[in-house]
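Fold this sequence, please.
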Amino acid sequence: MASPARRPPAKAPRSAIPQLSWRSPQPAPIVLVSGPEEVCAERAIAGVRDYLRAEDPTLEVSDLRADDYAAGTLLAVTSPSLFGEPRLVRVSGVEKCSDTFLAEALSYVAAPQEGATVVLRHTGASVRGKKLLDAIRAGEGSGVEIACPAVKRDSDRFDFAAGEFQAAKKAIKPTALRALVSAFADDLTELAAACQQLIADVPGDITDQVVERYYGGRVETSAFTVADTAIAGRYGDALIALRHALASGADPVPLVAAVAMKLRTMARVAGNREPAAALAARLGMKDWQVDRARRDLVGWNEESLGRAIQATARADAEVKGGSRDPIFALERMITVIATRAPYGS
């Protein structure tokens, strides 16, 4: 039986306007800041403001909500004042805009006011306002777009953090960067703040010791220590690391998640002899992640890896309410992984 034809991937909407990085935004009569990643969007909008304010300190800044909009407001705040100061208008909530705002924004985009910069924030959470986005992307109103896609994958978070230090011309050791990203694996806002704190506080290069001193108490960091020692087969060290993490207030759920993430990466890489760069590109990973997974796989085989993944899946269910004793569930998982043998054998 023939397999069904694969549907080609959906294409991103074509745009006739310049696409700018959120790290290097520039003003235009219309600036569309699109996508769900709020950290990047906030940086982009602040960057546009700083750019305009550097050109003219008398910049007038106004904020509007597209979902709670009074008729005529957009034209009022963009119109030239008596002294002709430049104007910046920041509009939030375009993805839930009112009909009144949509109609007036469409008219405005077709004929922007001279000396005004209008920043429109659309998270992409809905198709509301699509007609406005299409008009901007078609080139009406001399607009630019700053895309802020979601940062979800490990490689995306690693790129984000690396970009923070590159933009600040600050050196950080690759292992220190990995530890930092691991410490804030679930919160990009906190990761961004941690990067900026290290950039501001640390005079020289940022090393593993610096990251450990600042953020060694993070639950996620402890979780990856547990995962690393268990996967390396260091049973005693893994149990000690687990008990230390729990005594420090670690939640069992992210502990299991850290182990699961490393095992998934190992499973994706196992048995593949492609060069690291090619395999990383195909899997959406970084070269160092492939290299690390291959080192982690030393001493493992298909049977022991499958057993470890099953034990982790069981522990995941148990720490999320499936067992009265989540600590025992964690210890059993660590035992199976570190000994690479069935529990109790």
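Residues 2 and 8 are 18 Å apart (CA to CA). The radius of gyration is 25 Å.
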